[in-house]
């Protein structure tokens, strides 16, 4: 029996030694870890740093980086780990690990950066580096490491970019505004400044139950109180459109948008800033709001029920009558009607439900502490000033004078600028009334442009048709202006501008007309332009489209060209 046990022990020992030999024996079955080029966002909006750190926001689409790994070898990859850092902002993260990646297996790693609140102290675009560390073993005992580096732009805290899609993926208007929902993170109902602003409004009404038990009448009452308060205390709409911006293969519009507290303090705001203020104030009262984006504009809806049409829209910019084409004060009811008409006629609209998006993770940034007493004093002074003005006796009117029946040149120009505007069109009037042009209201419009001298652009995102307005204060002739445009388009945008025809005299009051072509990697477009030398410099108008577009939209092009007026 003992002999048998000794024999079995020997056999087991030989089997163990054989197994070790097989393990350490060189083999051709080794892993081979490969990966595609990482997908890294070109830029991050710093006011929305909480959004990028939340994998649940928009079903995880707002990742900073994505890397796809695959084992293309015949054996497993061992001890895989990955971590990342952004120097000065995020230290090396705890490594994510996979014990083994089997042959043919694919692993996807997504990064949602936990950026610190100090990124909101950046006032201008800042370049940082994302460093990704990868470690793995193709076979036991052989460890490899590689660090990948990619530049990322951190935008200034008030900079909003409206898309992060590559240019070749921009098909519809909605693609150009795919990141517009980020502005939901700028709605700040809990900001102490917003709280004091709402307190001033509701003080006028003797209190409100709008967010508790108020129906549509009560909600309309507090909305009217806020609208009237904004008008009476001198809050104003200001215009400052976004500017085109290109980072790598992403072309977008970037707009400086301030938080509601800044609008309250300065008593003025852009249309989107006023819309966000309205949303913040109403949400503070417990109401549900939606910010509506449509081409070139934004305004707010305040809901009083759950049904699709149970809301009150408000044209936020009507507090400044000129902004909506009115000659005198616009009533609250008229501001509602304007917003209702806008909703009915606009083909392209993006509705951003504030509560919905904030519940998904689009939360406001941490706000710096502020002296609330100072805010109270500012608001109290405005109320006192409003009361003092209201109590002043009416000013004595000068005796009426007989009108001059002979219109001056300036009066004639004013008459031209007040000509009827067709339905569905927007009239651009430049600062100083130097240039006026009508374009379809659904076109995407921006003030400024990628080259010096460009003060306005309007583009139909569904076609190639577009308009550019120029003003050169340092040039003396139309030819010099066209040459400057051609040089800048070539050097800044890779577009070769060619002049085919020229007609007209280059002197004050005379318009010089040009036609030509613009060639780039995207193809060749045809363009036509009109330029005029004025006291303020050289003014110019250019409209362009491809050959098919110019034929298809001939009547529209003719109308736009006929709508152009140059000042003196």
Overview of this protein structure:
There is one protein chain. By secondary structure, the chain is α+β, with helices and mostly antiparallel strands. It folds into three domains: 33-155, Immunoglobulin-like, CATH 2.60.40; 159-383, C8orf32 fold, CATH 3.10.620; 416-566, Protein Transport Mog1p, Chain A (3-Layer(aba) Sandwich), CATH 3.40.1000. Helix content is 28%, strand content 30%. A seven-stranded antiparallel sheet has the order 21-22-23-27-26-25-24. Strands 3-9-8-5-6 form a five-stranded mixed sheet, with no helix packed on it. It is globular, with a radius of gyration of 31 Å. The model is unreliable at 17-25 and 388-416 (pLDDT under 50).
Whole-number mean pLDDT = 84
Number of continuous helical runs: 13
Report low-confidence residues grouped into runs of 5 or more: 17-25, 388-416
Q: What percent of residues adopt helix (DSSP H or I)?
A: 25-40%
What is the rounded Rg?
Answer: 31 Å
For the largest beta-sheet, the strand count, sense and barrel status come to: 7 strands, antiparallel
Level-2 CATH architecture of the largest domain? Roll
Q: How many strands appear in the DSSP assignment?
A: 28
Bulk shape = globular
Structural class: alpha+beta
End-to-end separation in angstroms reads 121 Å
Strand arrangement in the largest pleated sheet: 21-22-23-27-26-25-24
Strand content: 25-35%
* The CATH C-level class name of the largest domain: Alpha Beta
The fold-level CATH name of the largest domain is C8orf32 fold
Q: How many structural units, i.e. domains?
A: 3
